[in-house]
Design brief:
Elements lengths: L3 E3 L18 E6 L9 E5 L7 E3 L20 E8 L7 E2 L15 E5 L15 E2 L1 H9 L4 E4 L13 H8 L3 E4 L9 E6 L10 E3 L3 E4 L1
Parallel strand pairs: 5-7, 6-8, 7-9, 9-10
Antiparallel strand pairs: 1-13, 2-3, 4-10, 4-12, 5-11, 11-13
Helix pairs in contact: 1-2
């Protein structure tokens, strides 16, 4: 039997967002409990909320929005790789447990463990070295995901990892909940909403065992 593993952090008002970005709020317009025929609510939040897919226009002038992206980036075979690094470090080729040669799938998710609680922001989460992105692209990887809020460090201003992704027309998934997920090959399903022109979209990310 195939098993589905949810790798999406719960979306609640407690979910931490990038400092200065818009946290989640919900306005209930009417409610069955108050006598209305339906419950109806309005959501307001950053599109970089929890598990999310970046649109290329988030880091590239004139690039595609997330709604214009092919869904092929976000569904299909993927490999989860342990990449234990120190807080505030960037994951390099040397940090991939099992080595780069194991990567034969077009989607790779890196488990760093450096952003352990999605409700408590820690600014020393890990990023990704541009050289690793170059090496993954050379192996045919089209999508890179990780368990932190960004492929670049919070202090980064020139965003070298984002720029490497842009050069190779890769896709980015951030904010994944990978704690407890065993390294190996899965089917990834993490479809963004068709938000035309937007710079990101929340995703309901899951892994399905093969």
């Amino acid at each position: 039997m195939k098993r589905v593993i949810d790798i999406t952090p719960p979306v609640t008002t407690r979910l931490a967002v990038w400092p200065g970005d818009t946290g989640l709020s919900r306005e209930v317009l009417c409610e069955i409990g108050g006598g209305a025929s339906v419950t109806l609510s309005t959501l307001r939040a950053t599109v970089h909320l929890g598990a999310h897919a970046d649109g290329p226009n988030h880091y590239g002038a004139g690039a595609q929005g997330i709604g214009e992206r092919s869904l092929d980036y976000y569904i299909g075979p993927c490999r989860v790789v342990d990449a234990p690094v120190a807080r505030g470090a960037r994951v390099g080729v040397r940090d991939l447990l099992g080595g780069l040669a194991q990567v034969k799938e077009p989607r790779v998710l890196l488990r760093t463990g450096t952003f352990p609680n999605p409700e408590v922001w820690n600014e020393d989460f890990a990023g990704v070295e541009p050289e690793l992105i170059e090496a993954l692209a050379a192996r045919g990887v089209r999508t890179i995901g990780l368990d932190t809020p960004s492929v670049d460090l919070q202090s980064s201003k020139d965003l070298p990892a984002h720029k490497a992704v842009l050069r190779h027309d890769m896709a980015i998934l951030e904010g994944l909940a990978l704690a407890g997920v065993e390294p190996g090959v899965y089917e990834l399903i993490a479809l963004p909403l068709k938000l035309m022109g937007f710079d990101a979209s929340p995703v309901r990310a899951v892994l399905r065992t093969l």
